[in-house]
Amino acid sequence: MTSVPMAEPESNEYRSDFLGRCVVLTPRRSSRPHDFVPCVPGKTSLPAQCFFCPGNESKTPPEIERVKAPGTSEWLARVFPNKFPAFGKSFKSAYGTHEVIVETPDHSKTLSQLDEAAFARYLGLVARRLRAHAHDKKMKYTCIFKNEWADAGASLEHTHTQLVGMNVVPDIIKQEKRLCASSCPFCLLAVDDKYSKIIEDGPFLAMAPYAPRFNHEVWIVPRSHTASIVDLDEASLLALARTMRTVLRAQDQLLDYPAYNILYHLAPHREKEFHFHIEICPRMAKWAGFEYGAEVVMNSVKPEWTASEYKAEIEKLK
Ligand SMILES: [Zn+2]
Ligand SMILES: [Zn+2]
């Protein structure tokens, strides 16, 4: 009979955070990320057939806005309604809007491959759409998210972001609003050693959260108490673009261009008492019975590892 080695008594750890997210860190189950050799993924659909590529604009619903390339009629980014909306003006109990932002005309690019100016342009477009949604008093919140690759829920390859304007505020946002109203936990992140920092300088902090639901999850948090992207001036928007782009570039190198989600947690419309943050969640592992049954996530990558690995990748990018 072979003997099974005993686990280190301290190796697994149960953690819960101020958002009530519960994880069990299981480092012995990890396959370390440097087994992967980074390579730019090949997209398999042809631009000629892609709904989001230049030349196929008539295949999308009528455009809401486009960012024009200077001196030409070509576009650098476009916004249009989702053809299959979850929320819409014609739905009584799911009143709202559902829009798509195509961040680049280039079919082959991922978001991390945009230059800093293009990334800031994209965030500026997000902010303008949020302001437009806020004019509609029936719209309470806009959920902004990005699904990159099929394993993260994308149905089309051409990189894009979705905005779902809703007549309800999601529970997680209500909870964050309640927390922010007293001693804001997001203001404390920058000074609390419990959190593993990745980028500490500048107006935005990038960090591995204390109880990550996803392997190599990263949060981006403004250091000062800021409600939403709509409150950022041009310089701050550029700083946010720089931070997000750096994290995504490091992620692509570290994890070989993984499928991932970007989740924007912003203030409800017309509300100012909030501290926004952005979650970048690589989809390296699938949730299964334990996660759905116990609502506790098994995560084999400790956030302390995530932080040191991202830091090392960011050094290489310099
Ligand atoms: Zn395309
Ligand atoms: Zn705060």
Provide structural commentary.
The protein has 318 residues and is α+β, with helices and mostly antiparallel strands. It has a single domain, classed as HIT-like (HIT family, subunit A, 2-Layer Sandwich). 25% of the residues lie in helices and 22% in strands. It has helices spanning 116-134, 171-181, 185-189, 234-255, 289-294, 303-317, and strands at 13-16, 22-25, 65-68, 75-81, 96-102, 141-148, 160-166, 196-199, 204-208, 218-222, 260-265, 277-282, 297-299. The strands form 2 sheets. Strands 3-4-5-7-6-11-12-10-9-8 form a 10-stranded antiparallel beta sheet. It has a 3-stranded mixed beta sheet with strand order 1-2-13. A hairpin with a 5-residue loop joins strand 1 (13-16) and strand 2 (22-25). Helix 1 (116-134) packs across helix 4. The longest helix is centred in the C-terminal third of the chain and has 22 residues, at 234-255. The protein is globular and about 60 Å long. The termini are far apart. The model has no long low-confidence stretch (mean pLDDT 90). Bound molecules: zinc ion (2 copies).
